[in-house]
From TrEMBL:
One of its GO terms (molecular function) is 8-amino-7-oxononanoate synthase activity. SUPFAM superfamilies: PLP-dependent transferases. Pfam families: Aminotran_1_2 (PF00155). This is 8-amino-7-oxononanoate synthase. The gene is bioF_2.
Length: 408
């Protein structure tokens, strides 16, 4: 198919949605207060952000980042390998490693580039990579050159065990198995069965376990140390990857491990590390300050949990459909893509910012509105969201008790 025809397939669809006045994406936000934003002249309650601890607007994080700019400038001036390496980077790596309970950590400029660069280093053509079917796009992107790859049924350790046994049973197999999962799945909010996955290491001691904890960091475990900590499997988890674009109020990513030789190798071989500029001082400092705050104020994580419990109970009382979890990500099942677009548009008009996820991000006919709690959400904001959701759930007939209808 020619380039323009290929583009037309996508842009034609977007035009139809735009013309219907229900296109929800790329909304330009002109001002943010964290739990509220200004968009198209309206002030809205934000329930779609990954800034789970609300630290993007913490005065200490902002001030420390501003000071870092005065001291180090706005841009890094080069890759870390060459002229962009800062004491701040090394300090952050040490703090991150200690925070997640590993010996060493290596930074990258985003979470996506961490997975891309680190996974690219970990695998040889003879290794077997096994992914949860719902793993994030950056993980699959990082496996580009892999020859032997399989997926297991979402959050299903026995399914993973069967795949490993079958691959290892092949006469030509002489590589290593790398199993990759997310900690909290970004769309569904499901928490990985890390205890069961770690248990597989008893049967397959050579298996390496890689945890993408983008959404678990700052959220699960004592003081928000993440999903491995939550399950008490930090030791069995070979690689813990995280990003600063969620609870750490910044951008940037890292991978941490006790396999310090492998991390040295990643630092010198990761293409997204070597051939990309270093993390700017302001972003590095924001993440460092978040660790300080998390260590000093564990009640922030507790407050996030309390808000999450409250919203989950509120949604349940309304009769909304969503999967059980302890995660702050609560995706509400709507139905068709069109209905989800209309629902999101009306939420916007009523003062709520939340976005739909449609096919192929979710199965066909199961489009959802992804909502997410923050520890800084106030009671009045949560009450407002629940009140609007209640009215709209009846109107759009999306409650469990309305199962038969599909018309707004
Ligand atoms: N992994 C997961 C599970 C994610 O959800 C995301 C971002 N949504 C990433 C990696 C990429 O992180 P970043 O936004 O920092 O590039």
């Amino acid at each position: 198919m020619k380039l323009h025809d290929r583009c037309q397939k996508v842009t034609g669809m977007i035009r139809v949605i735009r013309d219907a006045g229900i296109y929800p994406y790329f909304r330009p936000i002109s001002r943010s207060w964290g739990t509220e934003v200004e968009c198209a002249g309206k002030r809205l309650v934000m329930i779609g952000s990954n800034d789970y601890l609300g630290l993007s607007h913490d005065a200490r994080v902002k001030e420390a980042s501003a000071q870092a700019i005065y001291r180090m400038g706005t841009g890094p001036g080069g890759s870390r390998f060459l002229s962009g390496n800062m004491v701040l980077h090394q300090t952050l790596e040490e703090r991150l490693a200690a925070f997640v309970g590993k010996k060493r950590a290596v930074l990258h400029v985003t979470g996506f580039s961490t997975n891309l660069g680190a996974l690219g280093c970990l695998l040889t053509p003879s290794d077997y990579v096994l992914c949860d079917r719902e793993n994030h796009a950056s993980i699959f992107a990082g496996l580009g050159g892999t020859k032997r790859m399989g997926t297991f049924a979402h959050n299903d350790a026995p399914s993973a065990a069967r795949k490993i046994a079958s691959e290892m049973g092949k006469p030509d197999f002489d590589g290593q198995v790398l199993l990759i999962t997310e900690g909290i799945f970004s769309m569904s909010g499901d928490v990985a069965v890390m205890d069961e996955l770690a248990e597989l290491k008893k049967q397959y001691p050579d298996m390496l376990l890689y945890l993408d904890d983008a959404h678990g960091l700052g959220v699960l475990g004592a003081n928000g140390r993440g999903t491995a900590e939550h399950f008490g499997v930090t030791e069995q988890t070979d690689f813990i990857m995280g990003t600063f674009s969620k609870a750490f109020a910044s951008i940037g990513g890292f991978v941490a491990s006790d396999h310090t030789d492998v991390l040295d190798y990643i630092q010198h071989q990761s293409r997204t590390q070597i051939f990309s500029a270093a993390l700017p001082a302001a972003c590095t400092t924001a993440a460092l300050t978040c660790i300080d705050i998390l260590e000093a104020e564990p009640e922030r994580v507790e407050r996030l949990r309390a808000n999450t419990r409250r919203m989950r109970q509120g949604y349940k009382d309304i009769g909304l459909r969503f999967s059980e979890s302890i995660a702050p990500i609560i995706p509400i099942t709507i139905g068709s893509d069109e209905k989800a677009f209309m629902f999101a548009q009306e939420l916007f008009e009523r003062g709520i910012f939340a976005l739909p996820a449609i096919y192929p991000a979710v199965p066909r006919g199961q489009a959802l509105i992804r909502t997410a709690c923050m520890s800084t959400h106030e009671d009045r904001q949560m009450d407002f969201v629940l009140e609007v959701m209640d009215e709209m759930a009846r109107k759009y007939r999306i409650r469990i008790q309305d199962q038969d209808g599909d018309q707004p």
